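queue> pop job 88
queue> type: inverse folding (structure -> sequence)
queue> payload:
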């Protein structure tokens, strides 16, 4: 799938033809980042995109913020138009997740049906009935280590 930022400076192809999962996140951080009621993220494997090529890296800036689980999130955005392109979470021990979250509005041809609504406890708009939804993070969030993996 093709990913293009608002000004067209950042262009990339996703590592796989379709995402592993699509999330509509209602947390306060995603609402701020998207300047909207929620942020949409298409989750892809990081392999094939990371490490970033020199060309792509030269077009992106990065800002890092803490996560609510004690890790950090590397947030990549276009140096020209400022649009958030993707983010990747680092676990508390510094290990990068095996997935990358690409902003849904930038993914050409993204299938929006079946997206999971997460962090709905912070929702400011009604979440449609009949969709998968979680008050916080889903128990099996794609890319997150399972509890038994962390022991």
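queue> result:
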């Amino acid at each position: 799938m093709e990913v293009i930022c608002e000004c067209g400076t950042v262009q990339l192809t996703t590592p796989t033809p379709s995402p592993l999962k699509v999330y509509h996140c209602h947390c306060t951080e995603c609402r701020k980042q998207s300047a909207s009621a929620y942020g949409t993220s298409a989750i892809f494997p990081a392999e094939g995109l990371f490490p970033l090529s020199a060309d792509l890296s030269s077009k992106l800036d990065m800002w890092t913020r803490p996560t609510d689980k004690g890790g950090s999130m590397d947030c990549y955005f276009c140096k020209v138009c400022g649009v958030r392109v993707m983010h990747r979470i680092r676990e508390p021990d510094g290990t990068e997740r095996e997935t990358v979250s690409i902003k849904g509005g930038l993914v050409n041809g993204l299938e929006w049906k079946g997206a999971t609504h997460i962090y709905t406890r912070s929702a400011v708009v009604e979440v449609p009935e009949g969709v998968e939804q979680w008050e916080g993070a889903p128990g099996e969030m794609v890319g997150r280590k399972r509890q038994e993996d962390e022991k």
